[in-house]
Specification:
Helices cover about 10% and strands about 45% of the residues. It has about 300 residues and is mainly β.
């Protein structure tokens, strides 16, 4: 090989190594703009690599940049698409959530997106209904100009009732309990919690309906299932039984809300799927919304459903 040929070969090799997108994953993602407090926040990304197989994709999130982020492994649904979610009890009480996505290929090369900031709003608040900063400042000035009414006399303390410590955020074992109450019982008491919507031990029974809507061009028939379901609360842990065959859905109860996200095996009606349950206990009832998607590339589709139970 003469000197000229060797020089050209070295130059081509250097150009290929320096070309963008060569030798590392490429992540395509539309950032989430708004999330509802107490509700799971779904994240989707497309990850491809022309040089090596994509080995793993992770979602890293934290309420602020100063905190060590939590990590969630995303699941692949085929065709380079990866799904996952931030649990509902991690959304709030702050006004924002930050996250980024990281991908790694089989050669150990990684790529990651920029940090994205998500605005956290109360449940049922549409993004367009969020007031601008100038409106908030003006309303604060107007309230400051009006003298506050006299404070009401404190209610007498009632014995044998639970007291509650409500922190902004309590980090226990790597999980964050937010927006809820930690019950500290004085004495005695039965199986329920001390507040109207704080339950530590209870049994709820009722019905569920869940539907699968295929997104395949060859399959457009929606399939639904319904039946009886039980929701148990044992020492602050929620268990949903009867929704999906022998599957057991468990989650810590944070105040009056809980959320579960897990992969469920295929059944006679539904393919293997990733399900997200978001529940709330209020006034003797436990209601749960169900969302998710199929993990079977041959049978893609999405889920929606509802559990409606009452305390027994």
């Amino acid at each position: 090989m003469n000197w000229r040929t060797r020089t050209i070969g070295i130059g081509l090799a250097s150009a290929l190594l320096a070309a963008p997108g060569m030798g590392m994953p490429v992540i395509q993602h539309d950032p989430v703009q708004v999330a509802e407090k107490g509700q799971p926040m779904g994240v989707r990304a497309t990850v491809r690599d022309t040089a090596a197989r994509v080995e793993s994709v992770s979602l890293l999130y934290a309420p602020s940049r100063g905190m060590t982020p939590f990590r969630v492994a995303l699941s692949s649904s085929g065709a380079g698409t990866w799904y996952g979610s931030i649990p509902g009890h991690m959304i709030g009480p702050g006004a924002q959530m930050l996250y980024y996505i990281q991908a790694e290929n089989a050669d150990g090369e990684t790529a990651e997106t920029d940090w994205h900031t998500v605005r956290v709003v109360e449940r049922g608040v549409a993004p367009e209904a969020i007031p601008a900063a100038s409106d908030v400042a003006r309303q604060a000035q107007q309230r400051a100009a009006v003298p506050p009414p006299p404070a009401p006399a404190p209610a007498p303390e009632r014995p044998n009732r639970s007291k509650y410590l409500i922190p902004g955020a309590v980090i226990v074992g790597g999980a964050v309990a937010v927006g809820g109450a930690l019950a500290i019982s004085d004495s005695g008491g039965g199986g329920g919690g001390g507040g109207a919507d704080v339950v530590t031990n209870a049994n709820f029974g009722g019905t569920y309906t869940i539907c699968f809507e295929p997104t395949s061009e060859t399959n457009t028939v929606t399939v639904c299932d319904s039946g009886l379901v039980n929701v148990y609360v044992r020492e602050g842990t929620v268990e949903v039984v009867g929704l999906w065959g022998a599957e057991l859905f468990t989650s810590p109860l944070n105040g009056s809300v809980f959320s579960v996200a897990k992969t469920a095996e295929a059944t006679a009606l539904f393919p293997e799927s990733y399900l997200i349950l978001a529940g709330e206990i209020r006034s003797g009832r436990c209601t749960v919304t169900v969302n998710g998607y199929s993990r079977d590339p041959a049978n893609p589709g999405n889920y929606n459903g509802q559990l409606d139970t009452t305390m027994r």
